[in-house]
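dude i think i finally got it to work??
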Amino acid sequence: EDEDDFGYRLFPDRNKKPQSFLVRSLFTFHNRCQLMLRLTLETNPYARLLLEALKQSGCTVFNDRHFSCENCDGCVGGGFDAATSQIVLCQNNIRQQSHMNRVVTHELIHAFDHCRAHVDWYKNVKHLACSEIRAANLSGDCTLMNEIARFKFGLKGHHQTCVRDRAIRSILAVRKVSKETAEKAVDEVFDACFNDLEPFGRIPHSKADAKRAYRDFQNRDRYTANL
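look at this
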């Protein structure tokens, strides 16, 4: 019952005995997931920046240890399991590389927050709300092209509206709280968490922005290192 309250119902494979390598190798979904994950980690600037930031924060990410391709509920693409510090990738729901890129980035932001801060994921909904705001803001979830693909259009302030809405949706997906509780938590921490741009230093609205952010991150301490 408690696990269900924390969203584990969305990830039924979490409680199953791991399958053997031979059995997993026979499933196309699993193979595809692993290949797309590898491509994301090696080439996507969002993910590469976050991996380096995690390493510098003392939380090196290992592919086999910290990522798990599993079958999930039909409504989710992935999740961060704080109990195991593991990112779940929903192999039955992620079908495109662009989707894998966004899911990995989104969950790596949660992992970064987990590493750098004392986040109470299970009892403090405002902590969860803050990380969901940051993930929606910095992962590319709310880029113009993604919003157009969702048939959502807006003018001034649309990015903030998208971030707020997606943060609320994420909370409701993994916690048994009312919509009013989720909205209140998001609204109370929105300004501070929306403006917390670590480790990007900017809102990366495109892959080009992410590449610039990654380059800036690599050069961040170069001046002081040479003093």
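The first helix runs from residue 2 to 5.
im so relieved honestly
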